[in-house]
Amino acid sequence: MYELEQLLQQHFGYTTFRPGQKEVIEAVLQGQDVIALLPTGMGKSLCYQLPGYILNGPVLIISPLLSLMQDQVEQLKRFGEKRVVALNSFLKASEKQKVLQHLTSYRFIFTSPEMLALPIIQKEFRKIQFSLIVVDEAHCISQWGFDFRPDYLKITEWIPEQHRPPILALSATATKKVVNDIKNYLHIVQPFEYIHSVERANLHYDVVTTQSVDEKFNWIIEHIVKTEGPGIIYTQSRKKTVAYAEALSAHHIQAAAYHAGMGALDRQFIQQQFLADELEWICATTAFGMGVHKDNVCQVIHDHIPATMANYMQEVGRAGRNGDDALAILVYSPKDEEYTQYIATEELPESFHVGLYEEYVKRGENPKKMLDLNQISETGYRVLSYWMEQLPPEKAIQKLNSLKQQKVEQISQVATFVKEDHCLREHLVAYFDQKLEQKPSNCCHNCGINYNDIIKKRNGMTEKKELNTWVERLHLILPNL
Fold first, then answer.
1. Mean pLDDT per segment of 10 residues, for the chain of length 481 residues?
2. What is the dihedral of CA 466, 470, 471, 475, to 10 degrees?
3. Distance between CA 477 and CA 481 in Å, rounded?
4. I need a labelling partner for 356 at 20 to 30 A (CA). Which of 97, 151, 164, 190 fits?
5. How many helices (H) and strands (E) does the chain have?
6. What's the pLDDT score for residue 411?
7. What confidence score (pLDDT) does residue 298 get?
8. How far apart are CA 110 and CA 73, in angstroms?
9. 276-305 burial string, b = 16+ CB within 10 Å, else e?
């Protein structure tokens, strides 16, 4: 029998497990497939990290984002682990080849669904007897697989049915439907399931209604000027991330924009500044936050209606991970629902795209020409090509129409939550098929909420210092240099 507490202290320096960790680890060590839903900040990563020191063979972790992979790799290295690698686009071709030649020498191998879909990767992975396959942020199978990143639906295609290693699916939130999608697309049968309550008593929910986009923007800036962070503003527009960051900087508040249009290294640099408390606010699209281990975030502000309730829960869950009270504010204005619908569906293929695809195939041409001629976006083409491979044209059209309708319905669910006149906390918990046992004080917008009991007021303005030399600027960005 493994002395799990002893190994926990030996490898990670902790003396006790958090709720759910030990149960999940024991099931993994018994060779069971496992679905574990643990709220943000409950230490999901340990559920595969500790077994990695007990099981024979490498652990494969399939992760959705480059930043998340790099963060997990660096975390393991801080604990003294050297046999860890991220197989992703950060690696040069020569580095990737070297990793593939020495796969068995690694204890932890991180990669993405897209990398896993490459034939050369599958060929090399089939040679390896993995001890465990982990799908981190497994809700992405359902959230992204059908209409954004279809390689999520192909994760297990390369795995042989005989002598398959156990699969561990990890997420912070998932409805019964999402859990069923996880089971179906990962081919999980009779898993051990650990489902922790999504309720976070230290999160307090507010909805602020404004009459225009400008009023919304001004309210958010004025609120941040009066209160302390650290915090995250979530917005749908890359331009808005910059506008928020510039407005906050003008008030001498250290802030930076973060969005998918920035270079990977720039995003990673900004993330590290935020983690090191060199930035107080991140103004971001939803490209930011997944897997970011920052315990002291005390505010998360949305300036829009998120596309799904799961998105909202994931994003607000990045606050209060240290157990302290934290504030989640959604600032709403008319037409928010309409705009979110546009953003969520604009890249979905239409029926005429199915016809175009068919025409190219009939002419013996590569349908990918649609991309070269700007007839469809890259994301749209990935989705289109996946469903054209899976279904006949008529069924593909039906599927694409169904996906669009599902998105509209999911956004409508969030809009209903925003306009709710009963307890927001009860609504959230019920959405994830659970029941609220007890309401905390300052529960939510509808039950009563007082910001002064939750977050600190900002004590005066930070005096702006003129930086005269590049050396002074560099030391501000990298104070430990």
1. 85 91 95 91 89 94 84 88 90 89 93 91 91 93 79 87 90 89 91 93 97 96 96 94 96 94 86 92 83 86 94 92 95 94 92 95 94 91 92 95 94 95 95 92 96 90 42 46 47
2. 70
3. 9
4. 151
5. 20, 13
6. 95
7. 97
8. 8
9. eebbbbbbbbbbbbbbbebeebbbbbbbbb
Q: Which pLDDT score is estimated for 291?
A: 60
User: Which residue's structure tokens are 């975030």?
Assistant: 297
Backbone φ, ψ for residue 213 (5° rounding)? -65, -40
- pLDDT at position 478 is 52
- Bridge partners (DSSP) of residue 327 are 204, 299
Name the residue type at position 332: Y
Predicted confidence at residue 260, as pLDDT, reads 83
In sequence order, the 6+-apart residues with CB closer than 8 A to the CB of 394 are none
Classify residue 453 by its DSSP letter: G
Q: Check residue 145 and give left, alpha or beta (phi > 0: left; psi -120 to 50: alpha).
A: alpha
Q: Which residue reads 């992405």 in tokens?
A: 140
Give the tokens for residue 364: 């013996």
Residues in the chain: 481
Q: What Rg, from alpha-carbon coordinates, does the chain have?
A: 23
Cα–Cα distance between 182 and 189 in angstroms, integer?
11
- Structure tokens given for 290: 């997944």
Question: DSSP character for 150?
Answer: G
